[in-house]
Amino acid sequence: MMKFRFRRQGADPQREKLKQELFAFNKTVEHGFPNQPSALAFDPELRIMAIGTRSGAVKIYGAPGVEFTGLHRDTTTVTQMHFLPGQGRLLTLLDDSSLHLWEILHHDGCAHLEEALSFQPPSRPGFDGASGPPSLTRVTVVLLVAAGDMAALGTEGGSVFFLDVPTLTLLEGQTLGPDEVLRSVPDDYRCGKALGPVEALEGHLRDPTKILIGYSRGLLVIWNQAAQCADHIFLGNQQLESLCWERSGSTLVSSHSDGSYAIWSADTGSSPTTQPMVATTPYGPFPCKAINKILWRNCESGGHFIIFSGGMPRASYGDRHCVSVLQAETLVTLDFTSRIIDFFTVHSTRPEDEFDQPQALAVLLEEELVVLDLQTPGWPAVPAPYLAPLHSSAITCSAHVANVPAKLWARIVSAGEQQSPQPASTALSWPITGGRNLAQEPSQRGLLLTGHEDGTVRFWDASGVALRPLYKLSTAGLFQTDCEHADSLAQAAEDDWPPFRKVGCFDPYSDDPRLGVQKVVLCKYTAQMVVAGTAGQVLVLELSDVPSEQAVSVSSVDLLQDREGFTWKGHERLSPRTGPLPWPTGFQPRVLVQCLPPAAVTAVTLHAEWSLVAFGTSHGFGLFDYQRKCPVLARCTLHPNDSLAMEGPLSRVKSLKKSLRQSFRRIRKSRVSGKKRAANANSKEANAQLAEQACPHDVEMTPVQRRIEPRSADDSLSGVVRCLYFADTFLRDAAHHGPTMWAGTNSGSVFAYALEVPTAVAGGEKRPERAVEAVLGKEVQLMHRAPVVAIAVLDGRGRPLPEPYEASRDLAQAPDMQGGHAVLIASEEQFKVFTLPKVSAKTKFKLTAHEGCRVRKVALATFASVACEDYAETCLACLTNLGDVHVFSVPGLRPQVHYSCIRKEDISGIASCVFTRHGQGFYLISPSEFERFSLSARNITEPLCSLDISWPGDAARARYPTAT
Amino acid sequence: RFGAEFRRFSLERSKPGKFEEFYGLLQHVHKIPNVDVLVGYADIHGDLLPINNDDNYHKAVSTANPLLRIFIQKKEEADYSAFGTDTLIKKKNVLTNVLRPDNHRKKPHIVISLPQDFRPVSSIIDVDILPETHRRVRLYKYGTEKPLGFYIRDGSSVRVTPHGLEKVPGIFISRLVPGGLAQSTGLLAVNDEVLEVNGIEVSGKSLDQVTDMMIANSRNLIITVRPANQRNNVVRNSRTSGSSGQSTDNSLLGCPQQMEPSLEPEEEDSDDEDIVIEDNGVPQQIPRAVPNTESLESLTQIELNFESGQNGFLPSNEVSLAPVASGPSTEFETRAPDQKLLEEDGTIITL
């Protein structure tokens, strides 16, 4: 046997070689916004930005397509990051006070981010006497001095340590303890109190020997590192939060925990300053929250900018996340929807310049990054070419469209541009432009569609590394929802002080959960689209280049047919607005079909050539002719015993609650009435019963056990329609092929209908106005009764049939209609190929019986060879519930390769996975990020970029005396 | 006449003909043309076996040595229980019973159908190739309402390895549902360790994976267990004919054996056949497609299996704890070197 196995494995070295040329697994790039960001840095020289996260990831972004990712060994929060300007090096401080030095290195012309050195502060010495050296316990703040060769570390204990950055070693003997500082402070200020932790360290732009140190208690010290003495002391008494040193060095700004900020003059001789020039509480007089960070930027045009976060009146707006921008008399309170992590300005940092001239303000929030143009009046937001908050409303489904025709692409882009008017030509474009994208222009356009909880569908440019938002379609306007869209209202109704301005697009609150998008299908040749939602709404839309005002045709299809005894306990259907409605440029609704009962749509498919849309819910499926606007077919798939199907998808949570309540009730009852319990044979309740039944008798019962029982026909939700498919194939006899529709259910049933679609006159776009007819041709019951997840028809050469219009527009090879067709049916447990029109089993692979895993997603994909330009194979890619990706040959169904892709615990990741037609895929690694992976050895989308680094390299390593 | 009359007649051994003809001949010889009778014969071990179709008739004729002793009973009074089953465990010598016809007159008779109409619910299989500490049980779940009726759980078992005793995770039967198929067979018990499911080792697989494997195979579930109670094991070395007859030197109780790669017949495929309803017509099983080139490969594989089945048996104490790699290359369906199955499964792709 073993002999045999080995023989099989190495049976065909040629095939093995070919497999290597076809398949390779890579996780290539993360799209979207980093989950739980915790730190921000900007290198004004290289114009690159770094974002650190709470899981220890470091991401560096430059121009679109320029991305570097690194991950700390420990998944500890990155608390601070500092670029060594112009060197492509980054110093990170983690929550455990360890410091890490990252470098962007070039290998083979491409740049990568790598960790070079790390520094763990020595642990606290055993003794804690006043005479002992101050210990480096907890680093609160880091400042790079002397062009990044030295770092000053402020600690919780009030000391400032100095670190040699190229080697990441502590410079002994240079440590500045609080005692040393206190010596230059007048006695009456000292009064026995400690200075508290170092809250802020600021460097002087022109004189690297000077460091501004701010202590928590409020004391500010300009320390001369060369002379080892305090140049100037400011005796602040308000608890300090943050400091900013003006470019010339003559002015300081300090912000405080009571919501005030103070401006100090540094030009007032050597005696300690006791009073600031100005102290103000901008949102007073009532108690305010702390101003966490403050920046001061001066301008040539006069009137400096003061930009600060926080400081809001505690009682009235204490829960707002605000950044205030103040220039002269202009104050704008930027009101964000998520917590502010950090912000920076893009401004001149050349020491010889007299002014900062801030160009842009970048604010990193918990859920998005917002950049404002500070040069254009009104400070408009700059649209971000990447870092899009995918989750601005929770993603409920996604779809990928490959090879988008250039014409459709241009139309979508232009619709998107009209949606968010581009700023005037004088305005600033994206200010973070470092690095060069070396990746080739993508050979084809890929569109990623995401459906969201709020009823929107977003179109993303997924052709390259940077996932760029193109267009947003909202379906909410068609319906009367419980609470009306109140964006504009809310803004107007706001008090005029503080001058709030809503910024950013992260809006996790959905008006009505019924609006949620469940399925999206786009026909890339006709620009027609179907969006199906949670309340059984199926919307057929068409792209229009002009705004229009028209009424939408509404029909409803009863999927229960004449089934008696079912009452729908779920949500009601959405009530559409009547009368002509204005629609902007873009996808405009033409037809609305509402399923009854209004359960969530579970499957949808579109055939634009036949003007047919098929849709399914947990009750059945329907076929609708959207040219004639009339239903063709409705079929109920409910099993008579299926009662759960009536509760509706939204009551999932409710039903869990209900079942919890029930089981509590049951337990209580069982305590009271002992064994007086009717034996309930319902398989669904068996597990619940188990918990109570087994205990007294079965001592050895373990908490985790699994019931082994085959699926029965009346399992709950057996009628859920899982997939729908249109094909032009041989269903009834081998001589005539024609339109067919296929539907697969949760209980392993497949229904195949022969359709009578009037054919269009040669050259005509539209088919004649005759009714479409559907006749049930075949019904297949898979005996293992596993849910059918996908159906595809293979042509005589074993290739999947092309999409509608693909062949007729010469965009794909015409299918072979001579040889015998076959249908591939993928269930959660097995893949099977049956011949057509006479259904006989041809090949199969029983995945679950072999591997113990279940199929979650499948897709047919074309894998091109890296070795041979025009060799490609069509294979079946499959993601299992264990997070593994398997590839099978088609139609042989032989396993080719398999890779472990997603952690099996990551259920939302597995559920969100979408495959592309060319062997790539996406899945959500967090609510806001898609991981892109590639199964193809040839079709890989990964960052390839370079950075012009002026770092003297080894020269810098040769120790260079610190700036003394 | 029944139970008392003896006739002797000759048949041509080389050309036994059909059962129907033989049945007619018997009725003619005994002058009982219109009485439904049940025909039985005594095989070489003295077991009473039925003759009711061509196959067992041929078998009876070919093994007759030199005389074929035939027993004829009236159908309505036949003692069906007298027929020995062909399983190894339940063999009884019932010949004497039958020869004393008074016995079965005493109790009121329950009419049950012919043995061929019985539906097997379970069987112990591959006894000759498995170590005695293991048991391979086949549960037949037809369209019956009776549940399979068992639960599995995680656990750990102690194994002997070259490094001494080691605790390894395992899957165990945790509960049998009263009245379920599993309990009614008496072949599975709580705390039996599950080693294989339909020929695929479960070591290295999670409880959920094994659950899914069992459910996927639930129509024809073959579980190899190491029974918690090792006292009821099959005593082998009896007069079992035909098989390899190897008696393994069994290791200590609880010491697992190198598992023989399973040689499961894939008969289940016939049970597992999907149903197609054409044009709202009658449901029918989906036939297998005409064999094509792929059948050749399948053929060679069967031969290889056959060979390894003969030679590859390792009755060693060596423990292979290496989990069956999840790689597809190491797992594929195997089947017995049975000519008939070969025809059935000609096109099945096994890798």
What does the model show?
The complex is a heterodimer of chains A (964) and B (351). Chain A has 964 residues and is mainly beta. Chain A starts with a helix and ends in a 7-residue tail after the last helix. Residues 1-10, 125-132, 485-493, 649-655, 665-702 and 954-964 of chain A have low confidence and may be disordered. Chain B has helices spanning 19-29, 54-63, 95-99, 103-106, 181-185, 207-216, 268-271, 294-311, 339-344, and strands spanning 37-42, 48-51, 70-74, 122-125, 135-140, 150-161, 164-176, 193-197, 200-201, 220-226, 275-278, 283-285. In chain B, strand 1 (37-42) and strand 2 (48-51) form a beta hairpin. By secondary structure, chain B is an alpha+beta fold. Chain B contains nine helices and twelve strands. The termini of chain B are far apart. The chains are: A mainly beta (964), B alpha+beta (351). At the A-B interface, helix 1, strand 49, strand 53, strand 56 and strand 57 of A face strand 6, helix 6, strand 11 and helix 8 of B.
Shape of chain A: elongated
**What is the strand content of chain B?**
15-25%
What's the mean pLDDT score of chain A? 84
What overall geometry of chain B do the principal axes of the alpha carbons give? elongated
* Most extensive protein-chain contact, per-chain counts: A-B, 61 and 69 residues
Strand order of the largest sheet of chain A: 22-23-24-25-36
**How many strands, which pairing sense, and closed or not: the largest β-sheet of chain A?**
5 strands, mixed
Number of helices of chain B: 9
- State the share of residues found in helices of chain B, binned by percent: 10-25%
Span between N and C termini of chain B?
61 Å
WD repeats (chain A): 447-461
Domain Lethal giant larvae homologue (chain A): 280-380
GO biological process, one term (chain A): exocytosis
InterPro entries (chain A): Lethal2_giant (IPR000664), LLGL2 (IPR013577), WD40/YVTN_repeat-like_dom_sf (IPR015943), WD40_repeat_CS (IPR019775), WD40_repeat_dom_sf (IPR036322), WD40_rpt (IPR001680)
